[in-house]
Write a structure and sequence with these properties.
single chain, 460 residues, alpha+beta, nine-stranded mixed sheet, six-stranded mixed sheet, 30% strand, globular, Aspartic_peptidase_A1, signal, Plant_Aspart_Prot_A1, glycoprotein, hydrolase
């Protein structure tokens, strides 16, 4: 009697199931508001966030030195959103501010890490958690000949490496990649570049380029760059898109988080249900290489209570000099608008809030404007605000995303501008969509299809 044939179809099916299960298609990371406030004074908290938002905006817009706040009360991370990542073998976990406005990932590093001007009420400068390279078997200094050094310094980096470009020098030059120094609005950091293993529960990423910061100012927490550079976290892990949903700032230490998702599936280019999309705009090519890091979008109109605000096209579209246009930035708290754009929006807001008294004292205390006295009112009707993008996508902001209860019976507008009279500081993006206006939205950066998506969603 003949024996039955081997069950090849069944074996193949099982192997297919096993191989499919072993492929990681997405990485999910909890994301939550950064730091606890160093003060319970709401006016002081709002004043810090307004000042920090403007300072960061001016830094994103310009490569020039800018004035610094001489009396910091908060860590620079406050007002942003943080994630926890693990590096090394064995893995060491630390907290990072998630930042779409920069690309390099760096952490406080070595037992000698020094953070100047970090004497915040909720931070002990002598006890900031640091990555210790000597405790990892996979940590290596980045060499000058390593192609990843060019990610930071460009193709001519070898001219910065003493000895590597000398006649007769060895092709295996052991010179390390030059130290880095980065400015973040009110904070800064400097250190050496490493390659290390990034350890997710779902996946290990070897030879990940990461900054080992030895010295920082006002920067007690690392930065996870999610920008458009090759050194960004999404780029290095091969993400096709990433998304997040930011819970509301509650201005307290409530432990609330949501999800940041890195999608690694090359077939993930299909549209997410109910998400409105607008294409990313091509980044302007100028002498300011930082502009290549940002996510530019095509903001076409700003609408207040159904009326299109008159904004000159030079502010909505970046010119050949890199001035103008709109970027999305998770590291900026309050959305920033250049002075002419801001004044035009505020003018339309003011027309529809004419029945309320301007709360000038609250404006002085918070740095926000306009603020209105609404005490004694059971309900307050404020004008609707929305952003219209290329392709028909419209972000209709909930009131809580552009007005805040500021205490003493006042509400304040949470979009900011610089205090320069006239046209303000020109250069770089004119509008920066901050995280405060992104709260309780599902936000998607589709890197494969080159588009930005969003939909209203309760994030907590």
């Amino acid at each position: 009697m003949a024996s039955p044939p081997p069950p090849y179809p069944l074996i193949l099916s099982l192997l297919l199931l096993i191989s499919t299960a072993a492929v990681t298609t997405a990485i999910t990371i909890p994301i939550s508001p950064s730091s606890a406030p160093a003060s319970t004074d709401l006016h002081q908290i709002l004043a810090h966030l307004a000042s920090a938002s403007v300072s960061r905006a001016l830094r994103l817009k310009s490569t020039h030195n800018l004035p610094q706040d001489s009396s910091p009360v908060f860590a620079t991370s406050y007002g942003g959103y943080s994630i926890s990542l693990s590096f090394g073998t064995p893995p060491q976990s630390t907290s990072f501010v998630m930042d779409t406005g920069s690309s390099l990932v760096w952490f406080p590093c070595t037992s000698r890490y020094l953070c100047s001007r970090c004497n915040f009420p909720n931070v002990d400068p002598a006890a900031i958690p640091s990555f210790i390279p000597r405790n990892s078997s996979t940590a290596m200094l980045l060499g000058c000949k390593n192609p990843k050094c060019q990610w930071i310094y460009g193709p001519n980096v070898e001219s910065k490496c003493s000895g590597c470009d000398a006649p007769g020098s060895s092709p295996n030059c052991t010179q390390t990649c030059p130290p880095y120094m980065i400015q973040y609005g009110l904070g800064s950091t400097a250190g050496l570049l490493l390659t290390e293993t990034l350890d997710f529960p779902e996946k290990k990423v070897p030879d990940f380029l990461v900054g080992c910061s030895i010295l920082s100012a006002r920067q007690p927490e690392g930065i996870a760059g999610f920008g458009r550079g090759l050194d960004s976290l999404p780029s290095q892990v091969g993400a096709k898109k990433f998304s997040y949903c930011l819970v509301s700032h509650s201005f307290d230490d409530a432990p609330v988080s949501s999800d940041l998702v890195l999608d690694l599936d090359s077939g993930s280019g299909k549209k997410t249900a109910e998400v409105s999309y607008t294409p990313f705009r091509k980044n302007p090519v100028t002498s300011n290489s930082a502009l290549q890091t940002y996510y530019y979008v095509n903001l076409r109109q700003i609408v207040v209570e159904g009326k299109h605000v008159k904004v000159p096209s030079e502010y909505l579209e970046p010119g050949s000099d890199g001035n103008g246009g709109t970027i999305v930035d998770s590291g900026t708290t309050f959305t920033y608008m250049e002075r002419p754009v801001f004044e035009a929006v505020v003018k339309e807001i003011g027309k529809r809030m004419a029945n309320f008294t301007v709360a000038t004292e609250i404006q002085d205390l918070t740095g926000l404007r306009p603020c209105y006295n609404v005490s004694g009112q059971d309900t307050v009707s404020v004008p609707e605000l929305s952003f219209k993008f290329k392709g028909g996508a419209e972000m209709k902001l909930p009131v809580t995303n552009y007005f805040v209860l500021a205490g003493d019976g006042a509400i304040c507008f949470t979009i900011v501008s610089d205090n320069v009279v006239g046209t303000g500081l020109r250069g770089g993006p004119a509008i920066i969509l901050g995280n405060y206006q992104q709260r309780d939205y599902y936000i998607e950066y589709d890197l494969e299809k080159e588009r930005f998506g969003f939909k209203r969603q309760v994030c907590a």
